[in-house]
Structure formats: C-alpha cells, structure tokens
Request: fold
Amino acid sequence: MKRRSTLVAGVTVVIAASLSIAACGGGSDTTSTASSAAPASPFEYKDALGKTVSLPTTPATVVAQSSVAAALWDAGYHVAGAYGELKPDAHGKLSYQAGSLDLSKVKVIGSTYGEFDTEKYALMNPQLLIDYTFDNKSLWYVPAAQSEKILGLAPAIAVPGNYDTTDSAIQTFVDLAGKLGADPKSAELLQAKTSYDTALKDVAAVAGSSSLKVVVMSPGKDSLYVAYPKYLPELTTLKKQGLDVMDPIKPDETVFTQYSWEKAPDFSDADVILVDARTYEASKADLAKIPVWAHLPAVQAGQVYPWYAAAPYSYASYAKVYGELAGDLKNAKKLG
Reply:
C-alpha cells in the first residue's frame, strides 16, 4: 500500500484520532443536486479496479466517500449522500477533509471510518457509489463486513488513490464530475483553476528566493513519521515548483518512514516543518514535552505549519492549501 493509503494503514497509531471526524445528520434529499441536471445519456466509466460500469442513463442518486464527494462538489457535481469524515468539531465546523460539502443538502450514510448505515443507503434507492481504492482490490471506506450487501444495492466505481501530482488527481475528479453532468468549463471552476495556478506560482516564487529546506512530518507521542515526497502528489507538486522538500533518511518505500524520537535531531537542518493538520492540534501539548522535538530549530523558531493531508482533490481546495503555504513560507526565514 502506498501514497495516501499509508495515511491510514501505515501510521494508524498517529492518526487514529483523526479518523473520528463524523456527522450525525444531513439533508433529506435522495437525489443529486448537481449544478447541472444529470443528462439522460448513457453513463460509462472504467474504474481503478479495471472494471467498467455501464448504465443506461447517467445516475441521479450518487453516494460517495466524503473526500471523494468533496472533490466532486468543487468540480460542480453535488452528490446525494456521503459517508466518511464528516463530524463537525465543537464549533460546528467540518474538517478541511470535507471541503465545501453542505451537509444540509447531503444525506450522511456514515460518520467515521468503518461506519456505514446500509439501511439508510438502501432507502435512498442509490444508483451509484464512488470511493477510493489504494490497494486496487477494495473500496477504502466501505466496511469489509458489509461490502457484499452494500455493493449489491448499486453499482460502485473505485477512483485511484495514487497520483503523480495534484494536477492529475484533480483532473480525475473534474472528468468524473463532467460524466455525471457537471460543466467542466463553468466560470466557477475556471476561476478556481486560476486561483490554484496563482497559488502554485506564489510557492515557486518564495521557493526560488528563500532556499528554505522543508520536512513533512506526522509526529506522535511514541514515534516520529517523516513523509517521503515521491509517494505524495502534493509534495511532488511542490518539488516541481522548486521547493526543497527533504526525503526521509534511509526511507522505507512507503509514504512514511518511522523513527524513534532519538532520530529527530537528524532533521535539524530543516528550516520549516509541515505537520499533519489532522492530528497536530490534539497532540501539540504532548509534543511540547518531548525535548528533542522542542529543541528542533524550526520548532524553536516557530516555523511549524500545517500540512493538509488528505485534502479533497479540487482546484478550490488546493488553491487554499498552496496559497496558505506560500504565505507561511514568506514569513519563514533561513535558519542555517
């Protein structure tokens, strides 16, 4: 399992808490609220499992895993139902992983990893289910124990979880949204693409002028995990903009290489640390008690910024991610 799959499987201890982003509500509509009505033409899609789903008409009642749903939403297609990381926080705000999803217009089928209300799903009379696959065998958020029943209620397609760059990832969802009835040339989408391109240019500009060295981490109480850029499309994209993103030392061929905390000083030459936004706030107090973390130069300089792991693959989402990063990097200074 590589790339984003390791965000769940490879560092389960670190990110388990982040997988409890759930929702208890949702809209009552059982049909899509796509920005453009689903056309009556046939629908055909060859998915990441090598399976071709062919339907006589474009499906109107589509249910998707939450980050998939959020990517489609930003691409102009509004799903009827969603399951995944959808629980609002104490302030009623959804995680960034849910993107722009409006739960007042979406029926929530599952509110965290491993949760899927099969009865509620069946009552929607679903016509299509969409989820990621990371192992090219199974659907990421469909519980294995329920999969036979769930997959018997409607056809399902798997979108790939692994990409070379965010450009190719986003295009996958723009294309799929178009097949479902969205307008791939809408003014809103074109504006989001412009904002995305501008944010990347801003990253390239600050990377070229600052020579900052960046490391991406998911620090936990007992271990330190360092991301391997070549297995993450957002980090590959940033490297293409000229940003010096460090590789792990003696890396495993997976998204994260695990280290004991004694190895943390090996990354002391990093000017900036990007940390997993899903878990950092909850673990910040514990991390402050770990001396080797507290003494890292980037930590002492206050140059620790969020890495929005598992953000929806959309122009709107990554325009914000890259735009915020460009701003953070502009405020950072070379430490060595």
Summary: The domain at 5-182 is CATH 3.40.50.1980 (Rossmann fold). The radius of gyration is 20 Å. Residues 47 and 158 are 5 Å apart (CA to CA). Residues 1-36 have pLDDT under 50 and may be disordered.
